[in-house]
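Q: What residues go here?
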């Protein structure tokens, strides 16, 4: 009995993988474990090399943790800035005459913007200012 319309090839689904551009701490650890598992038993890795790689791993992990903390701090700044809407903020503005000290200005915050290059921007009734310029809130 012959079956028509069927070929002998198997269906192999196309699998798409996301290729990471950066190595994270998990990739570093996998590389280290693979290196240890595949080393030549007659010529094992030097202790110094292993210790240096573990130190690199530790440094990488600390940098990742610091990045997470900085991201949390940035989110806190954004939340803090939003709470300034409708309030008066004080800040210093450079005087037109550079020989005079800067003027302290009070302005009402109308809106808050998040600019990736400049950071948190407060839109006030006297112009836009950066969050870092704020010296007081009322």
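A:
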């Amino acid at each position: 009995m012959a079956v028509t319309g069927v070929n002998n090839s198997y269906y192999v689904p196309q699998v798409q993988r996301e290729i990471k551009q950066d190595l994270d701490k998990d990739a570093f650890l996998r590389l280290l474990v693979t290196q240890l598992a595949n080393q030549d038993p007659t010529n094992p890795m030097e202790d110094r090399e292993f210790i240096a790689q573990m130190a690199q791993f530790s440094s990488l992990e600390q940098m990742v943790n610091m990045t997470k903390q900085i991201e949390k701090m940035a989110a806190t700044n954004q939340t803090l800035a939003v709470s300034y809407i409708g309030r008066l903020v004080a800040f210093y503005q450079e005087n037109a005459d550079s020989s005079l000290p800067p003027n302290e200005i009070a302005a009402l915050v109308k809106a808050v913007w998040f600019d990736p290059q400049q950071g948190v921007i407060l839109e006030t009734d006297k112009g836009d200012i950066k969050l870092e310029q704020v010296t007081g809130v009322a």
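A: Context that may help when evaluating the design: The chain has a mean pLDDT of 80. Residues 47-82 form the longest helix (36 residues).
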